[in-house]
Design a protein that fits this description.
By secondary structure, this protein is of the alpha+beta class. It has 23 helices and 18 strands. The chain has 3 domains: 151 residues, Ubiquitin-like (UB roll), CATH 3.10.20; 389 residues, Glutamine synthetase/guanido kinase, catalytic domain (Creatine Kinase, Chain A, domain 2, 2-Layer Sandwich), CATH 3.30.590; 128 residues, Four Helix Bundle (Hemerythrin (Met), subunit A). The strands form 3 sheets. Strands 10, 11, 12, 13, 14, 15, 16, 17 and 18 form a 9-stranded mixed β-sheet that branches. Strands 1, 2, 3, 6, 7, 8 and 9 form a 7-stranded mixed β-sheet that branches. The protein is globular, with a radius of gyration of 28 Å. The protein binds adenosine-5'-diphosphate (ADP) and magnesium ion.
Length: 696
């Protein structure tokens, strides 16, 4: 086992290296950009580029790339070598400040949602000095933002950086009001817990659905699926252990703080949690983590499945976005703290987040809406599609006493009472675990649990930063104008909490009764991606993004289009894969089996052994019935896909996809899964759920 402290950050051009290799002046200038968000002096870039190149060459890298995050949700890179020709025919190795700072790329292969007209096919990448450069597979990777010639964001990093600026600005205003003059920067911190499945590669290859779509389109439930929980929980198998060890080392080398690893609820499901960092770094690191997870799996003859729902009837995979607000002085603004003054500040930030989540339930739902995630949210799985906040008993009691201006009674005798100015000591770690809540307070941070395992965490954090910035802005406007800050703050906290109590729900989110209760409270319930996406472009949301300078209306529209299109494409591909599997694998297998059953019946007849051939008739009847459903279903599905393609309007297309394609797929699957349980095992053309889930 490599010593983590020796390998940690080995492939990262990090702070230690910069300090070592950059002239003091350069280092300081860069530091000011990184920590205080100041813009970078171009002269500095040349020096940094040269130092990066020297280091990269020492590490054996020959190429560099602007590593960016287009709207596909996966990362992109285009490699350039460091080689530059000399007059004498030899080459020299070069990397200029200009090459570090700006890159040009052919943007036509990335989605733009109509932003980039065809004559302007170029996109530009711009260095993000707040995220460290790193070496991956012999290539120096420069984290960059990606935009069009006109400066419109075409990626997931640009809006995240913009939203960080918005949040910083407004949070600082609030902190000043509370007398915190030493703080110069506030940022969101995020720890993204990543769930995944591991399956054996040889088995995986025999499943075209997994290979093409990342999820199984057929597969009868194993006799004991999820119930095997206890059996699997706790014990990490040797092959998985070896994978995790390798994964950790690779992540550490990239400076990723991989911390905990454990088995998850479902068999073959696991989780990796990093130590939290600034949201921008957390987003880059999560993209890298997903990438490394897949590559390391390959080395172990495994496949890492990041799809939100690889197996029907088995727990899906999510990503828990742990979110808090931190100052550059190291203070967590969501830490309840012990002094009344801090508590008032804490309560104000808490109230701001509660109000933001309530006011923008729709946006929080939009940013986790994907075809894959629809199998979790809105289905009978955690968390539900309805946004709500879980606070836990203790904090809930405190909030209620603030709202009702009543005494706060705790079970602990040594707690202070809650007056308006005399706020209580908050008992630490008093939050209970609630696995069903989409947005839970967990001691000193919120955990947004609705994210799909496969998605970039940028979108959700852009929205969190933006909606919180906006609420803080309104609060700061009000408080700055008040003559008596303390009483104005108290009144504002109380009023805000009172107005937004409906979003707080501490019960079981799976219950049907919650759906009814949520409807009574007027909370949104948007079970599918198609229900959610139109909210993206509602005027109130366009206004929000423009007010906070995070997106122009045009940029939001483009994202809306990209998301709709992706939804349609994903299901289109699934549908056609299903047709192929049904006709080319399942049907032939079922026919072979039928033939053998028929032969057997014939043999019996020859032996004069008739007795009505009850078994054979019944079996053949079932086979025939399901094969017919399956076969006819494939034509209905092809027709539905064809019909969808002819629809022009993207939203209509998406609706049609959901309402006409998905139900046919479900019918076909039913027939296929019945066949799987009837057809003899040695006839079945692909590994079953049981085999896949037990394969490692
Ligand atoms: P759990 O008990 O759910 O495992 P942990 O305390 O281990 O909770 O944290 C889970 C995740 O939350 C980790 O990724 C951790 O780094 C992250 N986390 C902890 N504190 C913060 C914070 N202040 N801001 C953002 N994420 C945090
Ligand atoms: Mg968690």
């Amino acid at each position: 086992m490599a010593n983590p402290s020796e390998i940690f950050g080995a492939n990262v051009f990090d702070d230690r290296l910069m300090q070592e290799r950059l002239p003091k002046e350069t280092y300081r200038a860069l530091q000011r950009t990184r920590e205080e968000g100041r813009s970078l002096d171009p002269a500095v870039a040349g020096v940094v580029a040269n130092a990066m190149k020297d280091w990269a060459l020492e590490k054996g890298a020959t190429h560099y790339t602007h590593w960016f995050q287009p709207m596909t949700g996966v990362t992109a890179e285009k490699h350039d070598s460091f080689i530059a020709p000399r007059k004498d025919g030899t080459v020299l190795l070069e990397f200029s400040g200009k090459e570090l700072v700006r890159g040009e790329t052919d943007a036509s292969s990335f989605p733009s949602g109509g932003i980039r007209s065809t004559f302007e096919a170029r996109g530009y990448t711009a260095w993000d000095p707040t995220s460290y450069a790193f070496i991956k597979e012999g290539v120096l990777c420069i984290p960059t933002a990606y935009c069009s010639y006109g400066g419109q964001a075409l990626d997931k990093k640009t809006p995240l950086l913009r939203s960080m600026q918005a949040l910083n600005k407004q949070a600082l205003r609030i902190l000043r009001l509370f007398g915190n003059d030493d703080v110069v920067r506030v940022y969101a911190t995020v720890g993204a817990e990543q769930e995944y499945f591991l399956v054996d590669k040889d088995m995986y290859k025999k499943r075209p659905d997994l290979v093409v779509t990342g999820r199984t389109l057929f597969g009868a439930k194993p006799p004991k699926g999820q119930e095997l929980d206890d059996h699997f929980f706790g014990v990490i198998k040797p092959r998985v252990q070896a994978y995790m060890k390798d994964l950790n080392e690779e992540l550490w080398k990239l400076g990723i703080l991989a911390k905990t690893e454990h088995n998850e609820a479902a068999p073959a499901q696991h989780e990796m949690a990093p130590i939290f960092s600034t949201v921008n770094i957390a987003a880059d690191h999560n993209q890298l983590t997903m990438d490394v997870m897949k590559r390391v799996a390959d080395r172990h003859n495994l496949v890492c499945l990041l799809h939100e729902k690889p197996f029907a009837g088995v727990n899906g995979s999510g990503k828990h976005n742990n979110y808090a607000l931190s100052t550059n002085t190291g203070l967590n603004l969501l830490e309840p703290g012990d002094t009344p003054q801090q508590n008032a500040q804490f309560l104000l930030f808490l109230a701001a987040i509660i109000a933001s989540v309530d006011d923008y339930q729709d946006l929080l739902r939009v940013v986790v809406a994907h075809a894959g995630n629809d199998h979790r949210l809105g289905a009978n799985e955690a968390p539900p599609a309805i946004m709500s906040i879980f606070l836990g008993d203790e904090l809930n009691a405190i909030i209620e006493s603030v709202v009702n201006s009543s005494k706060y009674e705790t079970h602990a005798p040594d707690q202070m009472r809650l007056g308006v100015h005399i706020l209580p000591k908050f008992p630490k770690d008093s939050t209970d675990r609630n696995r069903t809540s989409p947005f839970a307070f967990t001691g000193n941070k919120f955990e947004f649990r609705s994210l799909g395992s496969n998605q970039s965490i940028s979108g959700p954090n852009v929205v969190l930063n933006t909606i919180i910035a906006d609420t803080l802005m309104h609060m700061a406007d009000e408080l700055e104008a008040a003559s008596d800050f303390t009483s104005a703050a108290d009144a504002l906290i109380r009023r805000t909490l009172r107005e937004h109590m409906r979003i707080i729900f501490n019960g079981n989110g799976y219950d049907q009764s919650w759906r009814e209760e949520a409807a009574r409270r007027g909370l949104l319930n948007l079970p599918t991606t198609v229900d959610a996406l139109p909210y993206y472009i509602h005027q109130k949301n366009l206004d929000l993004f423009e007010r906070q300078k995070v997106f122009t209306a045009q940029e939001v529209h483009s994202r809306y289009e990209v998301k709709l299109e992706k939804y349609v494409k994903v299901i289109d591909i699934e549908a056609l894969s299903m047709v192929d599997m049904a006709r080319q694998l399942i049907l032939p297998a079922a026919l072979r089996y039928s033939k053998d059953v028929a032969k057997e019946a014939e043999a019996k007849l020859k032996l004069g052994f008739d007795a009505g051939l009850k078994l054979e008739r019944s079996l053949l009847g079932t086979l025939d019935e399901q094969m017919t459903k399956l076969y006819e279903g494939t034509f209905a599905l092809e027709k539905a896909v064809e019909d969808t393609r002819s629809i022009e309007d993207m939203l209509e297309k998406a609706k049609f996809t959901r309402d006409r394609i998905l139900p046919v797929m479900e019918e076909i699957r039913k027939a296929g899964d019945i066949l799987e349980t009837v057809v003899g095992k040695e006839y079945w053309p692909m590994p079953t759920y049981q085999e896949l889930l037990m394969s490692v």
